[in-house]
Amino acid sequence: MPESTDVIQGTLDMLILKSLSLQPMHGFGVTKRIEQISKGVLRVNPGSLLLAFQRMERNGLIDAEWCAGENNRRAKYYHLTKKGRKRLEVETTEWRQRVAAIARLLEA
Amino acid sequence: MSLLRAVRAGLRALIRKERVARELDDELRDYLERATQEKMRAGLPRDAAERVVRLETGGVEPTKERVRSGGWEAAVETLSQDVRYAVRGLRRNPGFTAIAALTLTLGIGATTAMFSVVNAVILRPLPYRDVNHLVLVWTDDARRGLHREGTAYRTITDWASENHAFQELAFFTTQRVAPIANDPSAGRGRARSALVSANLFAVLGVSPALGRALTPADEAEHAAALPRPHRHESDADGARDRQDPGHDQ
Asked: Kindly report the CA angle at A100 between A95 and A101, in degrees rounded to 5?
């Protein structure tokens, strides 16, 4: 298995948007999902994640709701807004273009 | 709108500080608890799981600090802490504070005074022709302790007739009047009016914005109506509110 790395700079927002586009999730759910789908290649630190949540919430890309959890804890569940959904589409397209360009460069 | 949201979220963090801190604490605690449970499901005992999570995530306080420093309100918070620290320091050293305040006061005051002069004299000269040669002639009467007094109209006309020092002398005196308006909706402001000699416009090199300038004939007609007092009284009379520009070119 390749060594784990932190999420590539600038792609965390896109990965969060993608994860939340499937269903509303709490922070650890997003971390787990990114790690599982990437087969452990990408890791997310809670500091980076909560910081990104805060920024995206303020930019209107995501919204949050508190839900009661087990053991007197409560969990903050995030979901995409309309604007977030649109941003995900734009970022996905741009990302594909960039990856294809880099792939062409590496194969040339 | 996202700017509005950012401002609102920041203000909320500043005003409802404890509540926002508790929310961050709850969220992070929930996150760490879920991470710990997962390690325990993988077979670690609780304390080992907690230790691993702490190592992997970098600790609760540093993480919270990092999230708190993300918003714009963090800069405000830092600034207000700095201000509080500075105020405490100033309170502790009243002597230093007094000298610092005095230095600032004098420095700012002197600079402002200097700039006012430069602004009036160099940057914004009077809107007249040949301002360099325009002077205001005051009357001084040391005997009666009067200085920088206006000069009476008759005195000016006398000077003008025997004048060699100036190219031309003109008279004016200004006053504030409550204007008489037929239209009550025009309000009750106060206006400045001036009594002037006919040559004032020519001396200043300006023309009236509306209507025509006075002519020597106008002046002769009205000057004839002025009382001709004794010389002493004329000075006292003129001393009230009369200022007289002389013009020398």
From this structure: 100
User: Does the pTM exceed 0.80?
Assistant: no
* Residues of chain B neighbouring A4 (CB-CB closer than 8 A): none
DSSP state of A8: P
Distance CA B101, CA B80 (A): 21
pLDDT tens digits for B188-236? 667 788 888 888 888 888 888 888 888 888 888 877 666 555 544 444 3
Cα dihedral across residues B45, B48, B51, B57: positive or negative: negative
Residue B171's closest CA among B138, B137, B197, B207?
Answer: B197
Residues B7-45 have pLDDT tens digits of 888 888 888 888 999 999 999 999 999 999 999 999 999
Q: How far apart are CA B241 and CA B233, in angstroms?
A: 14
φ, ψ of residue A59 in degrees (nearest 5): -85, 0
DSSP annotation of B106 reads: H
In angstroms, the separation between the Cα of residue B46 and the nearest Cα of chain A is: 16
Cα Dmax for chain B = 119
Report pLDDT for B80: 93
Quote the CA–CA distance of B1 and A97 in Å, as a whole number. Answer: 29
- Which of A27, A50, A58 lies closest to B2 in CB terms? A58
Task: Decide if B2 touches A, using CB distance below 8 A.
Answer: yes
Residue for token pair 């965390």: A12
Nearest to A46 among B1, B9, B63 (CB): B63
